[in-house]
Design a protein that fits this description.
alpha/beta; D-Maltodextrin-Binding Protein, domain 2; 2 domains; six-stranded mixed sheet; 18 helices; Raffinose/stachyose/melibiose transport system substrate-binding protein
């Protein structure tokens, strides 16, 4: 695939935004047909299943179909992994749905290269309020070569360092304020037969989150920017080597316990370690808050859950306010759709996506923060107000809010990276060997 001129760093660079989130991305159940249909000919819309997110998406579609029956759009929900394969095949065959749900970034760029999605720049130009009302950090992953090919939607999800307050209190220890503190805490928890950091290593992308922050805190976001731009030997940057070396120090010290490579994120087994007190900390996406609240007994209710942004590394040049994660979700329009279907999709984008009713659904039904400037007014008085405010502050005050590496690169480029990260965590390769292998990928 041709390298597109997207800039990995064109996120919220010191621009205040009014939001954050605790979004969950999941999958369960077979593909199910939702939404109106009626006498309209607005085409189709594919999106991810799992409630409450699925219901919120369906509610928005139902509201649109009721308001505009002549443009009714038929919706279908799919499991996460099934959706990825189905949308890949559909786009390859030229049979994509009218409205395509996605993650933006590298995946979107591949759709643009295939000529599968519509250029929506003129729609944004004609509706400037649609850009202005969204978080600045959510816009870049919707763009390729300076043009919009997706509408930023739903919610923003930073990655968070969670900790169990009760475990720390019982151990007589304080939460870390630096990377050095994190390393120093490891033997103290190991001695008490407590896993310092819960990690679902088999899922691989969970491992990636650790490197994202270490690369950033040690060398700043410019280190991965060079990798994103495929600069020769970018993985051999001294900051990258140091980050991987520090990570392996943590592994060798027992920071993730035994058997972490066999734990999967899909089962929430890593979260169970934290909520049960068998682990002291966990680095994970903000979307896990909801599942910990639902599945962790009284852990969240009792106030035992602590959270913070990833601490700084001594001597590092990265701004400690920087964060990683998902700046939003993204709705694209199939370039193969008819003019009538394209009009219906754009009307849907204008009237229902991030409408006031949908915002209320995301906040009240899912405990998530939609990517709308000023949405924080909806947090007041909610049970989860403190958490919402934390995530809001993390996202809105970040000097740089970067998209997760695998989403920024896209699936083809991400696969060898994830495979090598797993080897790095398994101590099967050294940082230098990792860099050598990944530098070869840059040259392809």
């Amino acid at each position: 695939m041709k390298t597109s001129r997207r800039n990995f760093l064109t996120f919220a660079l010191g621009v205040p935004i009014a939001g954050a989130t605790l979004a969950a991305c999941g999958s369960s159940g077979p593909g199910t047909e939702n939404g109106g249909g009626g006498k309209g000919s607005g085409g189709t819309y594919w999106y991810l299943s799992v409630d409450p997110n699925e219901t919120i998406r369906r509610n928005s579609l139902d509201r649109f179909n009721k308001a505009k029956p002549d443009e009714a759009i038929k919706g279908n929900a799919f499991q996460n992994d099934a959706y990825k394969e189905k949308i890949r095949v559909a786009i390859g065959a030229g049979n994509a749905p009218t409205v395509i749900w996605g993650w933006g970034g590298g995946g979107l760029a591949s759709w643009v290269e295939a000529g599968a999605v519509e250029d929506l720049t003129s729609w944004f130009d004609e509706n400037p309020d649609q850009k202005e009302r969204r978080f600045a950090s959510a816009l870049a992953p919707a763009m390729v070569d300076g043009k919009f090919y997706a509408v930023p939607a739903e919610s923003v999800t930073p990655i968070v360092l969670f900790w169990n307050k009760k475990v720390f209190a019982d151990a007589g220890l304080q939460p870390p304020t630096s990377w050095e503190d994190m390393l120093a805490l490891v033997p103290q928890f190991v001695d008490k037969d407590i896993t310092p950091f819960a990690l679902a290593g088999q899922s691989r992308w969970t491992n990636m989150m650790w490197l994202e922050f270490l690369f950033d805190r040690i060398g700043g976001p410019e280190v991965f920017q060079a990798i994103f731009e495929k600069k020769p030997d970018a993985w051999s940057d001294p900051a990258a080597i140091k980050a991987m070396t520090e990570l392996q120090k943590l592994v060798k010290a027992g920071g993730f316990g035994k058997g972490f490579a066999s734990i999967t994120a899909d089962t929430n087994a890593d979260q169970a370690l934290l909520t049960s007190g068998r682990a002291a900390m966990m680095l994970h996406g903000a979307w896990t808050y909801g599942s910990m609240k639902e599945e962790g007994g009284d852990f969240v209710k009792n106030g035992d859950l602590g959270y913070m942004n990833f601490p700084p590394v001594a001597g590092g040049t990265g701004d400690p306010s920087n964060t990683y994660g998902n700046p939003g979700q993204y709705y694209s329009l199939s370039s193969k759709a008819t003019d009538e279907q394209k009009k219906a999709a754009k009307d849907f984008f204008s009237t229902q996506v991030l409408s006031d009713a949908e915002q209320s659904d995301w906040v009240n039904m899912a405990g998530q923060v939609p990517i709308v400037v000023g949405v924080d007014a909806k947090f007041k008085g909610l049970e989860d107000e403190a958490w919402l405010q934390f995530v809001y502050d993390t996202a809105s005050k970040a000097k740089v809010f970067s998209q997760s590496w695998d989403q920024a690169l896209g699936p083809v480029a991400a696969e060898p990276m994830l495979a090598n990260i797993a080897k790095l965590f398994g101590l099967a390769i050294t940082p230098e060997q990792f860099a050598q292998s990944m530098n070869k990928e840059l040259a392809k």
